[in-house]
Amino acid sequence: MIELVSPRENFIREVAARLQPKGKGEAAKDYSRSWVVFPERRPAYYLRKALAEREQTSFIPPVLESMDGFVGRVYEERLGKRDRLIDPLDAVALLFEIQRGESGFVHEHFMTADSFFPLGMKIFHDLEELCLAGATTVQVRELDLSPELDEKPSAQARGRLQSLASFYEQFYAAVKERGYSTIGSRSLTVLDGLKPELFADIETIVFAGFYSLSKVELKIIRTMMNWDHCFVLLLRGKGIESVLRELGPEGKALIGKAEDEIKGPGPEIEFIRSPDTHGQIFALNRALEEKTRDGAELDEKHAIVLPAAETLFPLYQQKLTALAGDQFNISMGYPLSRTPIYTFFDLLLELVQSRDEDGRLYAPHYLRFVLHPYTKNIYFPAAEHTVTGEGAEEKRADLTRILFHAIEDELTQGRRRTKSFWKLAELETDEAIRKAVQEKLKAVEDPPDVASLMDHLSSIHAQTVGPFGEIRDVGDFSGKMARVLDYIYKSSTARLHHFFHPFAEAFTRRLDDLENSLLRDVRFEDRSAYFNLFRKVIAAGTVPFEGTPLRGLQVLGFWEARCIPFEDVSFLDVNEDVLPSFRREDTLLPMAARTRLGLPTYQDNERRMEYYLDTIVRGARKVRIFFVENNDKERSRFVEKLIWEKQKRERERDGEKLVRTVQYRVALTKDETKPVEKRSAVAEYLKTINFSATALDMYLRCPLQLYYSKVLGIEEREEIGEQMEKKDIGSFVHDVLEEYFKRFAGQAVRERDLDAGEMKRLIARKFEESYGGDMAGNAYLLKLQVERHLEEFLLNYQAPVIRDLASQGKALVLFGLEQVLQCEIHLNGDTFKLVGRLDRSEKRGQDIFILDYKTGANEKYVGINFKKLVAEDRETWNEAIGSVQIPFYNCVYGWMHHLAPESIQGRFLMLGKSHLSPEIEFSPYDKDENVRAGQVQTMEKIISALVREIVDPARPFEPSNDRGRTCPSCPYGYLCNRR
């Protein structure tokens, strides 16, 4: 018997009305002789509640199943079959065995388990569809030759069909031989064995709310609906006519009634457009604001439907957290690959995969892993259980955070920032890291000793990274992953995070399934194959939020909302690619072949979605349809249809008038950066700092930079870079040149003493000290470049300078390398300390030269345009002065040694030039000695004036006037609102 139920009726109550209990009077009501089959398990909870409200006493519920559950129950309980339902992982393993045993099935790229897995899942899905369609191997093989196909398959498609037919033939034979069964094979068995005698003890069987059925499932229902005690209840909705036709003459007779029902009045529908997901939730909050204030108004008749699972957490954070735990319920599937646990494992495997043949790990990947919230919040000590009471040892996560942030600081500072690879043992025993940890512990109350914290680091390494040094097979790998998850659960704050428990349970089940699957003995030569397999297995899994309380606001996935009556329902993300969300390429079977075999196509799946959307909408009183519209997203075609229907009902020509838009008030203009007033206390503090050329240059570029750096003490955090920056190269070159020339300190340098081979050996040694001997990638290229350039420096610059001096009867005598300059000056009654670090000082004959190495090549950044510079006009300084460095060194060196600054020659050595020669020497001053003396005195006045200006309370810290030159590379650009 087939009955149509209006979506405006309570479908669950209509189902309950067909059920009668066995017990009478005061006896317990027994519905166990009734079976109800829904498309989805969720309506079963509503049916139990409806029966409870009707009986008002205890009762034995009916047997409630989904279609797969019904087939499984009949297969096992009524037909007495004892084989096991195959897990998809085992199915893929069997398919992989067939693939390896029969060459030519699929491309050779898929000959490893990790690369075959996603294809295997797709093949398994297609085989099950073929089985549920009752297709034979012969039918599949002959499809490409069938004259009934409107669209002939291509050569590639024919190859896929033949491969699929071969899999189809061998797979189910292998399944049966191994003592397994599948949903498809069980359904065929149930159909073959179906007879009323199997259900002699059953009084009522109801198939409720179905729309799309496979051929075998349809035959099962058609067979059973002819029995007196079997009912088929369907919801009227768009496209239900196709289902009625498939159910035979009785169904066809009801088509007219279904069409009449659709013409009736619809619910109140509101369409809300938003620029993004958060806008949708903002509008939803406003719509439910009154009901949210009084949580009692939010009952199981109110629902939020999420076709896109990724919207769950924005909804949870922005809406659900404001409700008490019993005021909402979540029931939907959430992708495992979007969980924090997946991110944790992904970072761990990325780190392990970076291990080179020497056992070193890539430093950026190491930091990303240890700074994941799960890792850096491992308790110290990482005991599995906390001992309570007197004498208990407290577990503290803050100490682990201190440990890893100390390591981060150490690995991202100075030269070590460019050391790309480290061994775990190096990190555990490194003296600089130990000192950094000890320094941070000074600010900690009741700190442990550093040794125990470093032991803690070794323990974390051993429990997380260590197990993956050797992997035997897939089972061993899965077991190790499960143990790492157990370690994180027991030894960190992870279990305190939102939804960690359902995430961890889903991961544990997935890892257990993999460990115990037929894939467990598979071995890979390449360790990365295990990681790829894990990622693909997890990508195919979901976290099943199976909330059962039927109280409060119901948060459901789209399919979980089927057949459930709601009075107030809100749909989020009703966009194309979400509703509908199916693609043509989700199958290996060509479209024409699917049509020929009666398999569902993307068009059928689209109609299925539209039908259930229609029944949910028509069954409610109030419906809100939210969708995102921006450059990347557009509203669903279903929304267009609903708007068009509303236009016809309300006789509104402009459909956009029916759509409400969520708009943000966004100010695209930036507030003008304001000067920072220099308080007297700040001015007094500035008098105590060391004034360097770098500080004066910074102040010249932008006084605000000096404020952020020297007053607030804000430093730009360094990161481990894949490429070495200019400052790293410059620092390395400085170190090499200092060490090479220090053997000449205090003596004349002769040309024959310049040894390019010694320079090359020194570079190799310094390179290994600085970068850990990492000879890969750009580090190796850098080493070659430095070797070539510094050899050229010796032969093409240093040697010609010495020869030229010798021709004049002069010698070059080095008397200072990395020399610290320091002096005090007295201005306006105050004393200021000027400091600098001079790369090199030397005498050429009787002339004193101070030299500063620059790895750049452009002199304009360090030069001074004296034609534009007017000492008395402050406005000219910024534009005319590239750097005060050489003038500053001239002055400080002269004042320090009681020499006239103009008597000292200052030069930049522009090492970044493509060709090195004596021409790389650059002075910001004029070559004419008389002119130069005046320029030196001018810069001496400007340096003194800058120092006075910096400490002047009347001069605020102002932003730079030259934004194009200063702001793009400024590390403080976001702080001052200019970037």
Task: Explain the overall architecture.
The chain is of the alpha/beta class and 979 residues long. It is built from 38 helices and 25 strands.
Radius of gyration based on Cα positions: 39 Å
Question: How many beta-strand segments?
Answer: 25
Estimated helix fraction: 40-55%
Assign the structural class, choosing from mainly alpha, mainly beta, alpha/beta, alpha+beta, or little secondary structure.
alpha/beta
- The 3D shape can be described as elongated
Spatially, the strands of the biggest sheet line up as 15-12-16-11-17-18-10-19
End-to-end CA span: 71 Å
Main sheet record: 8 strands, mixed
The proportion of strand residues reads 5-15%
The low-confidence runs, each spanning 5 or more residues with pLDDT under 50, are 383-392
Mean pLDDT: 87
| Number of helices, where a helix is a run of at least 4 consecutive DSSP H or I residues | 38
